[in-house]
Amino acid sequence: MARYVLKFGGSSLADPKKLYAAAKRLAALHGAGHQVVGVLSAQGGATDALLAKARQIDPDCGGRELDALLATGEQASVCLCAMALRRLNVPAVSLSGWQAGLRTEPRFGDAHILGLANDRIARELAAGNIVLVTGFQGVNDDGDVTTLGRGGSDTTAVALAAFLHADHCKIYTDVDGVYTADPRTHPDAVKYDKLSYDDMLALSRSGAKVLHDRCVELAKQYQVKIEVLSAASDDSGTVVGA
User: Fold this and answer.
1) Are strands 168-173 and 145-147 parallel, antiparallel or unpaired?
2) Angle of helix 152-163 relative to helix 213-222, nearest 10 degrees?
3) Which end of the chain is more exposed for a tag (fewer CB within 10 A), N or C?
4) 210 vs 175: CA distance, rounded Å
């Protein structure tokens, strides 16, 4: 038995068909006897829609209330995915960042993860559940919801893989790996089979959008090997590691 952390981005959850596809990936690993944690982003467009609503009320919105509002996008994703898994007769439980115990710095909009404050995820895994955790968010020492900024769901997945001593950390996106250029606009781009942490950091800092540099820095710190894969296919992706 292995322990997996799988992250799905917003474009991979954008409609019921895609959300069920993600649920089936999680269910397949669970059915093979593994412990499975899913980290989910808000569905495609959800965060922008929430931000637009907030700016209709206050063009200068920010801080505690905005973080609490934006966090509801990921909460919707994990709840819907848990419903899909239960429809597939697979036991699952959804957890927000604060329920999962993802402790962060006391700042809003761009908080850093500090650690896990409880063993809720481990207990749910031991009970046989797939655990679905909201990406992009945590909780500070005052009990307030905080968000992690750009690439926050990837960072959540790597942090959980480190803290839970996961055997695998898979990041599912809308491309099947890391390329020399964006394959959607450069048909001649070449995919990397493997990349070192430092090479991935250099790519991220030069504009590559597949993994945020904070996520890669965390992976390097805790020596978490990341696999970047396509949610729409079973093709091999890119491994980022030591």
Assistant:
1) unpaired
2) 10
3) N
4) 8
Residue 236 main-chain phi, psi, to 5 deg: -65, 150
Q: Which two tokens stand for residue 191?
A: 């995919």
Q: What is the pTM of this model?
A: 0.94
CA 151/CA 170 separation, integer angstroms:
15
In this prediction, residue 229 carries a pLDDT of: 92
- The two counts, helices (H) then strands (E), for the chain are 8, 12
Structure tokens at 139: 């909780």
Q: Is residue 233 part of a domain?
A: yes
Q: Which of the four pLDDT bands, split at 50, 70 and 90, describes residue 93?
A: very high
184 has pLDDT over 90: no
Instruction: Output the domain CATH number for residue 98.
Output: 3.40.1160.10
Domain that holds residue 92: 3-192+199-237
| 242 found inside a domain | no
**Helix intervals (H) in 88-182:** 97-100, 120-126, 152-163
**Domain count within the chain:** 1
Helix or strand (DSSP H, E) at 136: none
CB-CB contact of 156 with 171 (8 Å): no
Q: Does residue 185 form part of some domain? A: yes
Q: Tokens 């480190």 sit at which residue?
A: 162
